[in-house]
Amino acid sequence: SDNSINALISIEDNNFFNHEGFDLKRIFSSLIKNIKEGKISQGASTLTQQLVKNITQDNSKNYNRKIKEVYLANKLEKEYTKEEILTYYCNIISFEGTKNGVNYASKRFFNKDIKHVNLVEAALLAGLVKSPTIYNPIKHEENAYKRKNLVLKAMLNNKYISNEEYEIASKIKVSDMLYKKESNEPTYPYQAYIDVVYSDLDKYFNLTPYSSPLKVYTYLNKEVQLTIDNIQKNIDKDIKFNDELLNIGGAIINNENGAITNIIGGRNYNGERLYNHALNLKAQPASTIKPLLSYALAFEHLHYASE
After folding, report:
1. pTM, whole model, 2 decimals?
2. Where are the beta strands (DSSP E) in the chain?
């Protein structure tokens, strides 16, 4: 839809239909910033450059890679139309964090094809390109709301929408936009554990395996996790939940090396990228904090270890 194209271009590359794969003004601006900060910025990339990066899967941060990226972006622009490049981009880039393609994200969050999204939905999807994890509307509603409004502001500045449209769309809550999933939708094996892996990759390395070439090694115990998955779905033959209000969350840790082998995400952990009770729950630590606040002090000051 026009809304989707205008939203994406406004926030990612407002000169897309005019440049030849790279934007000299943005490159020089980024270069000056690099010199001042002593690092290579990723902010100067056009949509075509982003597409090249995802096709080549070269995630290195150096000037040689950026020069090759500019060259290949320019070559793409000579071989394909702007519309074709946009089509490739929207099918290859991850807007959702687990699977590629804007249409998948549109169905995931709104239960509709991308061609049917409205203005505010288009703005939310375009905002996800920067980081599908940080701006995930299910897990981080406030982040998604602010990002959505930033996209709308860019659309207003680029004269794609009116002041009235901006005022109305900017007030719409993310929770009111999302498709409410049915509890019988498919559950993916090990998803509670995998979601924690995704979160740590983004938190510590700013990476996602769906847009960067990665091999990720974990301590996952598959057999135990499958049992946990069955417990979460309340289909385990031995453990049953009698109270629908009861929920669970936790982590299984190997005491010998501290490795996290399994994650209990919560009841009915269906689908992908949900609220993970092992990772996202905000609660008092209760007695789990005693080793730090009580036992450690006893060992240090009362010499309990020597008794």
Report:
1. 0.61
2. 250-253, 260-264
Whether 241 and 231 have beta carbons less than 8 Å apart is answered as no
Q: Which residues 6+ apart lie within 8 Å of 205 measured at CB?
A: none
Interatomic CA distance for residues 106 and 121, integer angstroms: 8
- Distance in angstroms (rounded) separating the CA atoms of residues 91 and 98: 13
- 97: exposed, middle or buried (Cβ count in 10 Å: 0-12, 13-18, 19+): buried
Q: By CB neighbour count within 10 A (0-12 exposed, 13-18 middle, 19+ buried), where does 88 fall?
A: middle
Give the residues across from 260 on adjacent strands: 253
161 contacts: CB under 8 Å, gap ≥ 6 = 6, 119, 152, 155, 169
Q: pLDDT tens across 19-72, in order?
A: 888 877 776 666 666 556 665 555 568 999 999 988 887 767 777 878 898 899
CB atoms within 10 A of CB 218: 14
Alpha carbon distance 227, 220 (integer Å): 13
State the alpha helices, DSSP H only, in 139-251.
141-157, 163-170, 191-205, 222-232
Which pairs from 67-76 meet CB under 8 Å and 24+ separation? 69/45, 70/21, 70/22, 70/27, 73/21, 73/22, 73/46, 73/48, 73/49, 74/20, 74/21, 74/22, 75/21, 76/21, 76/48, 76/51, 76/52
Question: Which residues are identified as catalytic?
Answer: 12, 287
pLDDT in tens, 244-256: 778 888 999 998 9
| 271 vs 171: CA distance, rounded Å | 28
> What is the 8-class DSSP label of residue 291?
I
- Cα distance between residue 271 and residue 137, in whole Å: 15
Residue whose tokens read 């005693």: 290
Half-sphere exposure of 133 (CA within 13 A, CB side): 18
